[in-house]
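During the first year of the project, the team set up a workflow for recording each protein of interest as an amino acid sequence followed immediately by a discrete structure-token representation. This format lets reviewers and collaborators read both layers of information side by side without switching files. As required by the reporting guidelines, we include two representative entries from the current panel. The first entry is reproduced here exactly as it appears in our internal archive.
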Amino acid sequence: MSISEPPTRIGPESAGILMTPEEFDGNTDYDDLYCYELVHGVLVVNPIPSEAEGGPNEELGYLLRDYQRRHPQGSALDDTLQERYLRTADSRRRADRVIWAGLGRRPRPKEDVPTMVVEFVSVGKVNRRRDYEEKRKEYLEISVAEYWIIDRFHRQVTVYRREPGKRAMQVVREDETYRTKLLPGFELPLAQLLAVADKWAQA
């Protein structure tokens, strides 16, 4: 049980309360103008993703599904979803996008750890530390194979990979294209995603 009784309805005023993962999972009454995470037993409340984050995320989803439908090796992609929770022992992290690859079947989200996780960096030092440090550590610990951090401010994507006996990092610049052996033939044109982010940032 949590130390403090969680409120019936979850909203921005609930930030900082203590909850168990079971209490968090079971809550169905919340203010949907915000996003919620459970971080080491503490409820964290965030604003919903901005258009400059959501736009490129949708573009990435389109690129992935187009690869799945059209590429000869597109069957390597099992599925992809946006805004999904990843479970750890005491946390529920909300990922911008998750990707399952290599299963050869439809994923079971509550059981199958995503093969890849993608985060689009939000404004602010706290958010940057969360994406580059905290989530990187947590995602790789639960056996996510690749973690992509798409950073519209630094104009790059940083990829962390789990490899036998080590964790590798690769930085891809705006004018470069990222390729991963987990999705043979798929190309991530970073400039295309950043152009979508820029369009919304200037709106």
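The second entry, processed by the same pipeline in the following quarter, appears below.
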Amino acid sequence: MTIETKPAPVVYPGDDSTISWAIPWRVLAAGEVRVQLRTAAGDLSTLALGTDYTLAGVGASSASFSLVSIVPATGDSVLVEPYVSAVQTVDLADNDSFSVETIETALDRLTTLAAMLEARIGRALAFSAFSSGVDPTLPTPAAGKALGWNATADGFANVEAESIALADGAVTTAKLGAAAVTNDKIADATIQTAKLAASVLTSTWAANVDAAGYELQAAALKASREVVAAAGFAAGVLTANFANGSIQTVTLTANATTVTLSGFVAGKWSGGLLFIKQDGTGSRVATWPAAVKWPENTAPTLSTAAGAVDVVSLTSFDGGTTIAGALVAAGYTGLAFS
């Protein structure tokens, strides 16, 4: 019998129900088929004939196989491929008659073996026919190393990943995942001026930049502006969190019987200015916390006129345990906050 369909691997997708599939080539013996299951998670197992699957149609132009106790789920894959051993089992006696079927079966098995090898070679890495003098031997695997060309480009070698050179412009923002480059992945002094394009430091920012408390040294600021935050005031409680901005405004609509100050950073000089406006009634007062230290140990008296604005400086060196307070301006009239 001829082999009209070239034996080649076939992959069937799982669907939570199907357990039988066709083998579209002539299977000469039950042991000359290999069935493998790969799960959606990537786990690979070779199934055993009789235990995991049964085979039908051996010797016919096509065959089929059925799984015994496994139902491949969606995302799983089932592979069936020819698996012929490279042995010669036909022994012809001298001067004896021979069966044409025996010879044809041997040729069919040889053809199946050739097709199996062709399929495997087709999945293997190969050098171009134009390449010559290249040793395809791979080096002994080494953890943490990359596989690359040796110094003479005629063979492979284990190389340090850090030694792999990247062409200018090879690494772009589109090729980096979010947060892929972090401080702990960059050695000190690794990024030098010569490695930065001129546009890197002159580009217009398209979003806010958080320096996370790190220093910006020797900077010359031009046309800089402060973010103005609104301090909270409700039910007699004035709340100013200087992490929201170093300039804050508040309008007193009642006496501030409690003042809560936060957002200071220990070991840094931090805080800011608090602009306090009287409402249309005026004569609102503020009761400051004991942590605020005033010149000569005396808290200032706020302006009493309706609409008057006073400016109070509140700064700290120790994270707000003690706060230096000072009335830096008083009695502004007609000053709008927006």
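For the second entry, the following points were noted during internal review. The radius of gyration is 40 Å. Helices lie at 100-122. Both points are flagged for discussion at the upcoming steering committee meeting.
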